[in-house]
Amino acid sequence: MPRILVVDDEASIRELLSRFLTEQGYEIVLASSGIEAMASLQDREPDALVLDLALPKMSGLGVLRLIEEEKLEAGFVLVMSGQAHAASWGLDALDSGADQFIPKPFDLHVLEGIIAAGLKARTEPRRDGQRADPRVQMLLPVEIDLGTYGATLVGQTVDLSRGGIRVIVEQKVRVGTNCVVRIPQAAHTEAQDGTIIRVEPHDEGFSVAIEFKMP
What we know:
- It is a single chain.
- With 215 residues, the chain is an alpha/beta fold.
- The protein has two domains: 3-123, Response regulator (Rossmann fold), CATH 3.40.50.2300; 140-212, predicted glycosyltransferase like domains (Thrombin, subunit H).
- It contains five helices and 13 strands.
- The protein has helices at residues 11-23, 34-43, 60-69, 86-95, 108-123; strands at 3-7, 27-31, 48-52, 76-81, 100-103, 137-138, 142-145, 152-155, 158-160, 164-169, 178-184, 189-202, 205-212.
- Strands 6-9-10-13-12-11-7-8 form an eight-stranded antiparallel sheet, with no helix packed on it. The protein has a five-stranded parallel sheet with strand order 2-1-3-4-5, sandwiched between helices.
- The longest helix is centred in the middle third of the chain and has 16 residues, at 108-123.
- It is elongated and about 55 Å long.
- Residues 126-136 have low confidence and may be disordered.
C-alpha cells in the first residue's frame, strides 16, 4: 500500500485528502506544518508527498530546500497552492525539486490521478530501461493571445518547464508566432511573452510548445 504524507495547515484540507485518498487505497500520514513534515520525513520516507506551499513559519519551499540539503527521500512530490501567485510559486517549487504542481481549489480525482501517474512513472522502467520522469503539469485554463493574428486560444492542460509551456488547443497555429500567455490567478492574471516553437497533432487537437522570452 503506497504511503502518502499530506502536509497542509488547514485541518479541513487534511481531513478531506485523508478520507478520500484512504478510500483510494493509500496509507495516509498527516502533518500540519513544515516542521511536522520534516520530522515525519526523517522518521520514515513516504512514497509520495502532497505539500501545501503556503505553510506558516516554514513554507513548502522551505521544506523542499531542507529535503535537498539533508538528502532526504520524499518520493513523488506534488505541491499545491491557492494563493494569488500560485503559478510563480509552482515554478519555484519545480525548480526546488517538486515533481508536479496543482492549484487550489482542485478536483480530488484529478489530484489522485496525478499521484497515481507519478508513482507509476517512478517505478515503471521505460523501453530504454531508464526510469520515466513524471510529467510536470499545471491543470489550469490558459489563454494564448496571438497578437497580430487577433486570436485567442484557450487550453486546459499545461506542461511547464523552466523556460516554457506546452498547452493542448483545438486550433492549429504557426511555428514562430509571437504570443502572450495568460494564466488566471485568484486575484489577477499572470502574463508571459513567448514564441511558438513547435506544433504537433494531438488526440484533442494540437500540442503547442511555447518558449518564454527572457526579460
